[in-house]
Amino acid sequence: MRAYRLGKELTPDELAGKLGISRAALYRAEKGEIRKIDMLTSIADELGVSLASLMGVGVEYVSTAIAFFERMRQLEEHCQQIIGLFSPVSYLLTSDNYDAVLREVLRESVPEGIEAEGTSAKAVDGLLEILRARKKAFNANRPLIVSLIASADLERFLLHGLIGRLDLPADIVDFRRRHARAEAEFILSMLRSQPIGIQIGIVREPVPATSFQIFRQADRSMLAISPFRLGEQPNIRLGVALITSAPEAMDLHEGIAERLWGEALKGGEAASYLEAMIKKYAIRT
Questions:
Q1: Nearest Cα to 197, choosing from 266, 139, 144?
Q2: Do residues 37 and 122 both lie within one domain?
Q3: How many independent structural domains does the chain possess?
Q4: From the DSSP assignment, how many helices (H) and strands (E) are in the chain?
Q5: Which of 30, 83, 212, 242 has the fewest Cβ atoms surrounding its Cβ within 10 A?
Q6: 8 Å CB contact between 216 and 199
Q7: Cβ neighbours of residue 274 closer than 8 Å, sequence gap 6 or more
Q8: pTM as predicted
Q9: Of the residues 57, 77, 100, which one is the last residue of a structural domain?
Q10: 158, 98 in Cβ contact below 8 A?
């Protein structure tokens, strides 16, 4: 419920007013303490989602980036292991310096004259707050993470830099390419040191266009498939993500992850490959 409210850029007071209930009652509903079907139906109608999606059962369809990443935060909160294909790299494994320029990158990715839902300065700030909360919780809880990184995504990231669009002034592009190089070197340091609980694989074969993440919790596993992406030419504007625990979807994506991980470069081999990639494609320091 909180995720979909944030996706609609509604404050608790605004949604409570539309529903004719108190702010305290809304907070209780967001915590799962109110399960009256008539109230939940009214909330679902107001937020434009199905009752099943609102209650986190069945297949959830999420049409805004801020709602999707809030759901990621919620799923990661009780997660024991995360497996995923991320583009160009898992946000959870980025450096703190990555956050410093991400706001500007997300804002510039929206074409001029377009102010779509979820792309305002307020929405971007809200999204960054959620992302930082995800990284903080990850660093505190330290669930196991298997991060699959596509070689082609890394090449584009190093060539173009951390940018929202391609028509930026040359000095800004150079600055952003230095950020991209620093992030690649941060990944390189993890490949060399191999921190406990962090496994990184570089995939050289073509990968799916959409990212996916598998969340293994104590009592269930969930799958998230997303068109939203951060980093080089991000997308926080258009697309529909889905979240499901359907056995067939889980089995298929577990199989893809297992195959990609089996064929990926890992450890010292991946470090040498990435080091050569940085020398070939990254801006010189």
A1: 144
A2: no
A3: 2
A4: 12, 8
A5: 30
A6: no
A7: 154, 184, 187, 188, 191, 202
A8: 0.85
A9: 57
A10: no
In a shared domain, residues 21 and 73: no
* 78: three-class secondary structure by DSSP: coil
Residue indicated by tokens 């990231």: 157
Continuous segment of H or E residues that includes residue 243: strand 241-244
- Residue 136 token pair: 């903080």
Domain check: are 211 and 155 in the same one? yes
* 4 and 72 share one domain: no
Name the pairing type of β-strands 144-150 and 79-86: parallel
Per-residue pLDDT at 263 exceeds 70: yes
Same domain membership, residue 96 and residue 53: no
pLDDT higher than threshold 60 for residue 55: yes
d(CA 93, CA 85): 13
Which residues span the domain enclosing 21?
Answer: 1-57
The tens digit of pLDDT for each residue in 163-208 reads 988 889 999 999 999 999 999 999 999 999 999 999 999 999 888 7
Q: Which residue has the higher pLDDT, 51 or 148?
A: 148
Q: Determine contact, residues 158/180, Cβ cutoff 8 Å.
A: yes
pLDDT digits (tens, 9 = 90+) for 14-34: 988 988 888 888 888 888 777
Rama region for 233: left / alpha / beta (φ>0; ψ in -120 to 50; rest): left
Q: Are residue 117 and residue 17 in the same domain, yes or no?
A: no
> Angle CA(187)–CA(191)–CA(192) in degrees, nearest 5?
120
